[in-house]
Amino acid sequence: MDFRTLPNGPITLSNVTVPGCLLGREGDLIRTDISIVEGRIGPAQALAVDMQGAMVLPAFVDMHTHLDKGHIWGRAPNPDGTFAGALDTVRADSTAHWTAEDLHGRIGFSLRSAYAHGTRAIRTHLDSIPPQDDISWPVFREIRADWAGRITLQAACLIGCDKWTDDSGPFGHTADLVAATPGGVLGMVTYPMADLRERLRGFFRQAAARELDVDFHVDETMDPGVETLRDIAEIAQETGFERRIVVGHCCSLSTQEEARARDTLDLVAKAGIDVVSLPMCNLYLQDRAPRGTARTPRFRGITLVHEMRARGIRVCFASDNTRDPFYAYGDMDMLEVMREATRIGHLDHSRTDWAGAFSVTPAAICGFEPPDLSEGAPADLVICKARSWTELFARPQADRIVLRNGRQIDRTLPDYADLDDLMRT
């Protein structure tokens, strides 16, 4: 139940709390008024509602998800919680179950959750090793059309760098599927290989020829010797690649010698690479001991977000996996991501503009319509009964109000029982 019901029609939400960075103003939290006219933010209206300091945020942008993997835990749990266990379990489940019907059901469930929580745009990675690419990409295009006007969707293909081929091989077909999908992004997982740099050159050539942005899963390990992020930054500059480059995870930076990590970040900044951190999934997987071992994890797995921001690198946070072998939890709730990222990454007592990393910054990186609180912008808002950061993050804000085009939406979450038929193996 929302904490209050707002009247329809032109209205002024008076006495609300807004992060100053989202209004282009100095300071942390600001008290102000926001008016809504015909679904957009507009001039002050005669009908005013005192919101008693409730916090207003623009609807969220979740730029790194795995909708195709989501909610398979019921039939494919991770046997030991490890990264290797997740890889093997997902591989087996996809081979056995990832039909068009299965994908439609699980992706739809995730999108219903995200919409109810207040997300307006999502980028998902799609496992694309043939023949899965010919199943998942047509399904994604159908879902993208079905959800138009509610959640804007993008997709990036996902293959390991060892599976990459030039256009004469299987990946050429996958790249064509991506290019035929509006907003498609070319994606790859990188890990050490003798010829990785040559593979990256070919990958960038393919993306440039198709005028596609690229999005990498990078160095998702606590091994300080894994440094494929350096390879990406150096090859991007060498080839003069001009499209957007995103890298996700970058966990090994957190275990490297300080001087080496900072030198890598200088390369990333020079190459104009954007970073997405996935703190919940990385905290779950990284530094996990084998099952039955009496050892507490030492490392958080979060990448060096503060050092990145200090260099002018754009940084944002996202959900990553949801109830699958890579992460047993989550609900496509960006407010949860915001709360946990703040705790895990010590975003508090830091900059006053981190709020943009969950809406404005990922929208700019992905090319989505920018979330905005200025006059003329769509009134796509998330309103929480919290007057300060400590009030916002102390509770899950289950009674939040979500407005889309100025109207309060039904925030009923889908029932997990809706997935029962898909969980039977």
TrEMBL record:
It comes from the Bacteria. InterPro entries: Amidohydro_3 (IPR013108), Metal-dep_hydrolase_composite (IPR011059), Metal_Hydrolase (IPR032466), Metallo-hydrolase_Enzymes (IPR052349). SUPFAM superfamilies: Metallo-dependent hydrolases (SSF51556). One of its GO terms (biological process) is cytosine catabolic process. Residues 49-128, 191-407 form the Amidohydrolase domain. The keyword Hydrolase applies. Keywords: Hydrolase. It is an enzyme of class 3 (hydrolase). Transmembrane segments: none annotated. One of its GO terms (molecular function) is cytosine deaminase activity. Its EC number is 3.5.4.1. Signal peptide: none annotated. Pfam families: Amidohydro_3. CDD domains: Bact_CD. This is Cytosine deaminase. It comes from Rhodophyticola porphyridii.
